[in-house]
Amino acid sequence: MDDSDEALMARVARGDQPAFRALARRHLPAMVGLARRVLGNTADAEDVAQEAMLRVWTHAPRWQPVAAFKTWLTRIVVNLCLDRKRRAAWVDLEEAGDLVDRTPDAVERMETNERERQLQSAIEKLPDRQRAAIVLTYSEGMSNAQVADILDTSVSAVETLLIRGKQNLRRALGGLIDEEG
Fold it and tell me: Which of 47, 134, 146, 153 qualifies as a cystine partner to 165, CB 3.0-4.6 A?
């Protein structure tokens, strides 16, 4: 009987538990070591290696021997380690401190709404082509080239319209535009 990793995986794909145990005995210690070196944490390393072996079991029917089994398993372990390292570390509740509510309070919302109303009113008072250039660029997120096509003009003309429009808005708003960015 062929005891290569690939032959064992073919048997695992058919639900052969002894073949899975043979693969686990063969590779689990090395995968724990790999995970420990990548993570630097023994408890997490064992969890990662076990999760990788669980994926071997669940994905066995779809596994294709394109690469060597050990290469595939190593890729799974490394990806799981990298995923773990990307996740934020858990902090004990006592160490976490108070939660900060980042939602704006009523006063902030009122101030924001008032600034937006003033800005919209000032935009409405701009000359038509300046207003169109400002709205298409900043509200609609279009490039200067797209705006130039829409307004049937050149990119440099759009840039001029934007400069003049922003100058007019700064004058109308008395510094509000500089506060906002």
Answer: 134
Residue with tokens 């100058």: 167
Instruction: Kindly report the pTM of this predicted structure.
Output: 0.49
Domain boundaries, the chain: 5-88, 119-180
Average pLDDT along the chain, 181 residues, taken 10 residues at a time: 85 93 94 87 84 92 83 89 76 67 78 86 89 88 88 93 94 68 44
Which architecture characterizes domain 5-88 according to CATH? Orthogonal Bundle (1.10)
Rounded to whole angstroms, how far apart are CA atoms 28 and 26?
6
3-state helix, strand, coil in the chain (%, to 5): 75, 0, 25
The answer to whether domain 119-180 has CATH 4.10.320.10 is: no
